[in-house]
From TrEMBL:
Its cofactor is Zn(2+). It comes from Nonomuraea deserti. This is MBL fold metallo-hydrolase. Gene3D superfamilies: Ribonuclease Z/Hydroxyacylglutathione hydrolase-like. Keywords: Hydrolase, Metal-binding, Zinc. SUPFAM superfamilies: Metallo-hydrolase/oxidoreductase (SSF56281). InterPro entries: MBL_Glyoxalase_II, Metallo-B-lactamas, RibonucZ/Hydroxyglut_hydro.
Length: 226
């Protein structure tokens, strides 16, 4: 599998292109602020043809360039329905104070938007990616996994040594702990985590050192009826 990426814009949001190999079709994950030129450069360098854009959630720093990237290549964008409204109303994903920073910014949906669901298996560009609904950072947060390659694109669910914030609209701390418990902790230690911000890590490393995964661990057991 070929995975190439770069941190985009002021938010340093990791944007990835993913393909079976150079010279083949690919998917683009989370084209953030001013990501268009970086995406084009990676596509030229690796001779890739995009067939879709995949969005881990609807926050502005992850979807800023989705409409121009999709429009230039005539490809669909995939997002969970609970975050779809953020494509055209980015301020809804931020606190009132933060939203004022984007008061003059207008975004629009790509022409072709398709909705993700928990457990769906996407067959795109010769790849097989499993969709995990992982709410807590936003209601519609998802991660994408390649079980065959033991790779997880975690968005803002899990970072090296930390997790995504849960204090913005649609976020909830107890919910993100459940997502970590049910979607991250069951994975093999060797699973490579490619997060929305910062360096890559592994599930094993985070299981050992990440305090939030340790806090999530009790939630991973069976639920008792009351």
């Amino acid at each position: 599998m070929l995975i190439a990426g770069f941190p985009a814009g002021a938010f340093q949001t990791n944007c990835y292109v993913v393909a079976p190999a150079a010279g083949e079709e690919c998917v683009i994950v989370d084209p953030g602020q001013d990501a268009t030129d970086g995406v084009d450069e990676l596509l030229r360098e690796h001779r890739l043809k995009p067939v879709a854009v995949l969005l881990t959630h609807g926050h502005l720093d992850h979807v800023w360039s989705v409409a121009p990237v999709c429009g230039a290549r005539d490809v669909p964008a995939w997002i969970h329905p609970d975050d779809r409204h953020l494509l055209s109303d980015p301020a809804a994903g931020w606190s009132d104070t933060s939203a004022q920073l984007f008061g003059g910014l207008t975004l629009s949906e790509p022409d072709d938007v398709r909705e993700l669901s928990d457990g769906a298996v996407l067959q795109l560009a010769g790849l097989e990616l499993v969709v995990d609904h992982t709410p807590g950072h936003t209601r519609g947060s998802v991660s994408f996994r390649s079980p065959a390659d033991e790779i997880m694109f975690s968005g803002d669910l899990l970072f090296a040594g930390s997790i995504g914030r849960s204090d913005l609209p649609g976020g909830d701390y107890a919910t993100i702990l459940r997502s970590l418990a049910t979607k991250c902790l069951p994975l093999p230690d060797d699973t490579v985590v490619l997060p929305g911000h910062g360096p890559q890590t592994t599930i094993g490393r985070e299981r050992a050192v990440n305090p939030y995964l340790k806090e999530a661990a009790p939630h991973a057991g069976p639920t008792r009826g009351i």
